[in-house]
Structure formats: structure tokens, C-alpha cells
């Protein structure tokens, strides 16, 4: 039996965290290829360190079945166009520091053609449907703790850093630099968050603020009003403990302070540890990779189940084999909060998205578009769908259909 009263913690990292810089660059590459060819294949890994940017991975720009010469030419053309896009992404984050500067960092690109052996399992043909890009298990989750139907600890940790990013970019809080982390600990009673016990913020900062050195105490006074804004009234109490830059000064940060790699913040990207994770990262992968697209589909279905009032909490697992279109398994758990037999949902939900094959998922959610750079920081879930098709997996357009199952 699950506990209803407990303490739980989740963390987030900012867009300027080294790993998130790498994620942003890798997803900028994905968007560049999908802008040129919606059927492009991309698996891009990025390394960032002191004044250095390195890209590696496998790409193919042309359509499956396109001529080899045309595909190769288009791929080379896109690869040649990447450097200014990558530098612009770093500039947008705000890195103009001695140890990591958008214009001065050395750039190296080692992207090369996708393996033909992988392509033969993934591409559709006249005789078979397009298969999954790899084997694996993916999870989706939703819970009614917040309006976004996300775990509250993670949603508030994201919101802290999004708010600090806004005031950094606007100049309202000019002492801040891009690299930051947050952590939120909540006390739950009867399964509901009732009190913030601890707020941790570690943020890179300028050396001085006016005529004075920046100390943790001064920094806390500067950022605390912005942090408080993200919490519902009453959650922060006199018992709430604040830890701002608990190690002291934090002037050297970003890729100059720590190397960053694509795909190292998968729990931050998903549910903050409140739900299972299949293990595959999202960033740098085109949507034929089920690590990404099927995880989005599982979140979409779980969110609609909760939004429809069929459960307070819902976890979905799906599995695939490389080169096989149909899922190997589909599992639903409503954690004892459901209004409908999970077995019934296991039959109904995949059918609502065309059987949950890789292509059906991409078509239903419109994933073959350049919508991925915006996902690279502050979570892939709990976001608002936008007019360009971004975060389409956050729609709740299956609610009426699902209510018919009750």
C-alpha cells in the first residue's frame, strides 16, 4: 500500500547548465535537419567544455528511398550550415564569458552518415511498415498535484529557474549568470503537497553587484522575491529553509566550470524521480527514435486519462523492438485511484493513436517538425502547447473520448 504522508524532493537545472547547453545544441541540430527534410534522421551528441564545442553522431537528410547522391548532398549542405545556428543557440542562453563565449569557442563537427544497417530496420518499404528506431521501454506519467498535471516538486523546481531566467534576460536581476540549479522539498499529507520544507538554489553570479561583492546572503535577498512568486500562497511557511549557493561563491560556471554532455539530465527532463524512466534520453534524436516519440505519446495518454477524471495518477509503459512497428507491450497503472479498469485502458488507449506505431505517433502528434530546441530546458512535460506544434503531447484533446469509457 502506497504512503499518503511523506516528504519528497525533485531538482531542476537551468538552460545554462552545461548538460542543458549540450541538449540545446543537439536539439538545434535536430531542428535544422527537420526544417530541411521532415523525414530526416538525426542522432546528435554534443560535448561542451572550456571554450570548446564538439558535435558527433549520425545523420541523414534525405527521404527514405531518395537517391544516394541527393541525400548525401543535402546532408552535407545542412551540416555546413550548423555552426552559426549552434553559436546563436549559445548566445541566446547568454554565454559571453572568458571561459565560454558563443563567438570565440572552438567548434568541431563530426556528424556522419547514419548506419545502413540501422536504416534498413527503421525505414518503411513496399512490404513492411516503418519499424521502431531502437528497442527499449518508455514511460509516461501524470498526476493531479498541479494544474500542469505534473509532480509538484519538479514543477516548482522548473518554475524557479524559468523565473530567474526571465529576470536575468530582462535585466531585472542583472547579477545572475546562466548556470543554475534548483531543488524543492515538499511535505505531503493525504497525497497532497501542503508545505515547502526546503528550497535550494545554486546560481552562477557576477563577481560584484554595484560596489559590493556578491555574497550568498546578498544573492538570497536579490532572488528570493522572484522565487516566492512561483509557489501557491500558503505553501512557503516560517518553517521553510532556504539554501542559496550553500557552497559560497559561484562565479565560474557553465561549460567552463564543468563539461556538459547531451542526455545526462533525463530525470529533470521527465518527472523528477516521481515516476519510472526507461533510460533513454530525448535531446538530439529525431522522432523516429521511440526513446523520444513514444515517451511523448505515453505522457500524452497518461495526461488525458488524468484530465478526463479517470484517475488522480496514471503511469503508462510501452515497449518496442528495433525494426518492428507494433509495440511489444502496453501497460497502464492508475495506482488505485482509477475509475476505469486499467485493462480496459490498455486496449483503448493505443487505438486512440493509431495503434501506437512509431509513424502513427508522429502523425498524431505532428512530431516531424522543427519543434525541439524549445524542449531542451525546464522539462519536456508540463508545458503549454504552442502555435507551431511544440509540446503537442501536452494537449488534452482525448478527454471527451476517454470519459465515454467510464
Uncertain runs: none
> What does the average pLDDT come to?
92
**Order of SSEs:** EHEEHEHEHEEEEHEHEHHEEHHH
Specify the biggest β-sheet.
4 strands, mixed
Strand order of the largest sheet: 1-6-7-10
Shape assignment: flat
Which percent range describes the beta-strand content? 15-25%
> Distance N terminus to C terminus?
25 Å
- Count all strands and give the number: 13
Approximate helicity band = 25-40%
Helix segment tally? 11
SSE class: alpha+beta
What would you report as the Rg, rounded to the nearest angstrom?
Answer: 22 Å
What does this structure look like?
The protein is α+β, with helices and mostly antiparallel strands and 406 residues long. Helix content is 33%, strand content 24%. It has 11 helices and 13 strands. The protein is flat, with a radius of gyration of 22 Å. The mean pLDDT is 92.
